């Protein structure tokens, strides 16, 4: 039987398991039972023993690793982590969840990227586990967990989910409401809409109910409540740590997590060209102004009132940010955020915003002098909501705006378009930038090769001259 804690490690059952199993002095000790379970459910899938967690600490790190790779690794195969989705691992996983929460709360802020990664991974692991459970057991499990989370409430109103709605984990449009109450089962649906459906055949009633509600709404509410409780759990740990000393093993786990995430970032936070200009992976690099298209250079040099706002806020902000952080955005079937590439926002603050600010200062009149509110719009276009500067905790409140095409620039910002011969080969300024960088690289390689050949020729002549002497 699947335990409730397999889906909700914060349940009463999960608390009992934690009390029975946790031993902070053995977090990094090899655990034969864990190894046996992991190997058994990975048989024929994982050939590398190094991929099998051998202790609670490694299992905690794997909890983050699988989700990070799923987001960033184009060669990711979820079955490499198949042990996570079999209920035999549930008691070990409960302990790993709590260890990881304590390590993150101790080392990072509750609004940090690492904290978000933890809560997002919890959301994803619930979805995947539910998807792999047979329908009958899944429905029974969801009912039990949701009743526990809602304290067996009879009539759930949308106002009972205020925290989830205000944090945009759930939208009112996701729910089927009648007089402020959320319809959660078919009986409630029949009662609420009795007059509307009384003449319908049974088959149609069930079909409409399943399409509008079914178990989708119950699972959505269940998942988001657990995610919200996970966020609250991190905050409660953080508050407690202000008055108590954390166990050394948790500190060590926090250090290992930081090291592990750095390695994952280095290995997987890169974007692959998949063909096109050159071969292999496209490594992110410093901005190269000599590869900027004419329209970008024109914007940085200064644009006049009339279209300076759109030129800087809509066009330049998106171009500079993607050129530096995700130049292959139009070639990859991948949706990412700024912090997936720039986790501490150092690149954003030190390299991207200075160029945007330079263009704003060069504008006629200077953009921020008479329209300082445009700073907020720039932050919004980077995906950090309506604020005066980008902050980790606000990411995702708006969308990271992708660069305009050449066609749109000609239509809306025609005075910026000063096409050169490279422009004729592309349809987007970002494509221009990638092509131009590749061309410059090849030219430089050719020059270096020529210099080496010339030097080699001179050396050979000197050698001949010396031999004659």
Question: What do these coordinates show?
Answer:
- The protein contains 20 helices and 4 strands.
- With 469 residues, the protein is mostly helical.
- The protein folds into 2 domains: 4-176 and 213-268, no CATH class; 271-444, no CATH class.
- The chain has a two-stranded antiparallel ribbon. A two-stranded antiparallel ribbon has the order 3-4.
- β1 (177-178) and β2 form a beta hairpin.
- α3 packs across α4 (90-107) and α3 (56-72) packs across α5 (113-132).
- It starts with 11 loop residues before the first helix and ends with a helix.
Topology:
Elements: H1 12-21, H2 32-40, H3 56-72, H4 90-107, H5 113-132, H6 135-149, H7 162-166, E1 177-178, E2 181-182, H8 186-192, H9 194-197, H10 202-212, H11 216-240, H12 248-268, E3 271-272, E4 281-282, H13 294-301, H14 308-325, H15 338-341, H16 346-362, H17 367-370, H18 374-381, H19 406-412, H20 429-468
Helix pairs in contact: 1-4, 3-4, 3-5, 3-12, 4-11, 4-12, 5-11, 6-11, 14-16, 14-18
Major β-sheet, in short?
A: 2 strands, antiparallel
- Strands of the widest sheet, in order across it, are 1-2
Cα-based radius of gyration, to the nearest Å: 28 Å
Indicate the percent of residues in helices.
Answer: 55-70%
Give the class from helix and strand content and strand pairing.
Answer: mainly alpha
Overall structural domain count? 2
End-to-end CA span? 93 Å
Task: Tell me the strand percentage band.
Answer: under 5%
User: Would you identify the regions where 5 or more consecutive residues have pLDDT less than 50?
Assistant: 271-282
Number of strands: 4
> Topology as H/E string?
HHHHHHHEEHHHHHEEHHHHHHHH
Shape: globular
Average the pLDDT over all residues and give the rounded result: 88
Helices, by number, come to 20
């Amino acid at each position: 039987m699947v335990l409730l804690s397999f889906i909700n490690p914060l349940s009463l059952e999960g608390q009992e398991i934690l009390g029975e199993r946790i031993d902070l002095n053995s977090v990094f000790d090899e655990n034969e039972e864990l190894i046996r379970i992991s190997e058994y459910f990975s048989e024929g899938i994982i050939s590398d023993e190094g991929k099998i967690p051998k202790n609670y600490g490694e299992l905690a790190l794997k909890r983050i690793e699988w989700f990070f790779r799923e987001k960033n690794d184009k060669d990711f195969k979820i079955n490499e982590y198949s042990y996570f989705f079999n209920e035999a691992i549930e008691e070990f996983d409960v302990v790993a969840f709590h260890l990881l929460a304590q390590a993150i709360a101790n080392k990072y802020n509750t609004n940090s990227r690492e904290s978000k990664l933890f809560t997002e991974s919890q959301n994803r692991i619930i979805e995947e586990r539910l998807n792999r459970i047979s329908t009958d057991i899944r429905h029974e499990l969801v009912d039990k967990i949701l009743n526990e989370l809602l304290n067996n409430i009879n009539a759930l109103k949308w106002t009972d989910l205020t925290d989830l709605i205000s944090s945009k984990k759930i939208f009112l449009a996701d729910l089927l409401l009648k007089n402020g109450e959320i319809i959660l089962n078919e009986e409630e649906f029949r009662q609420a809409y009795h007059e509307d459906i009384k003449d319908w055949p049974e088959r149609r009633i069930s079909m409409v109910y399943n399409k509008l509600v079914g178990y989708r709404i119950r699972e959505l509410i269940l998942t988001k409540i657990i995610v919200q409780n996970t966020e609250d759990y991190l905050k409660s740990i953080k508050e407690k740590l202000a008055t108590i000393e954390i166990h050394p093993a948790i500190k060590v786990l926090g250090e290992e997590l930081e090291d592990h995430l750095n390695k994952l970032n280095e290995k997987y936070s890169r974007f692959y060209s998949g063909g096109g200009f050159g071969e292999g992976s496209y490594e992110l690099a410093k901005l190269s102004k000599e590869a900027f298209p004419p329209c970008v250079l024109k914007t940085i040099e200064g644009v006049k009132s009339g279209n300076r706002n759109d030129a800087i806020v809509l066009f330049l902000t998106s171009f500079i940010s993607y050129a530096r952080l995700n130049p292959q955005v139009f070639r990859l079937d991948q949706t990412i955020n700024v912090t997936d590439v720039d986790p501490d926002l150092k690149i954003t603050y030190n390299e991207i915003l200075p160029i945007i600010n330079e263009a704003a200062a060069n504008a006629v009149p200077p953009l921020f002098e008479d329209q300082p509110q445009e700073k907020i719009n720039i932050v919004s276009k980077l995906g950090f909501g309506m604020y005066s500067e980008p902050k980790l905790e606000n990411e995702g409140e708006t969308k990271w705006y992708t660069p305009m095409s050449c066609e749109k620039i000609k239509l809306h910002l025609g005075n910026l378009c000063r096409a050169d011969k490279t422009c004729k080969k592309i349809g987007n300024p970002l494509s221009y930038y990638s092509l131009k960088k590749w061309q410059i690289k090849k030219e430089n390689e050719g020059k270096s090769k020529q210099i080496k050949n010339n030097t080699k020729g001179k050396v050979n002549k000197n050698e001949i001259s010396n031999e004659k002497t």
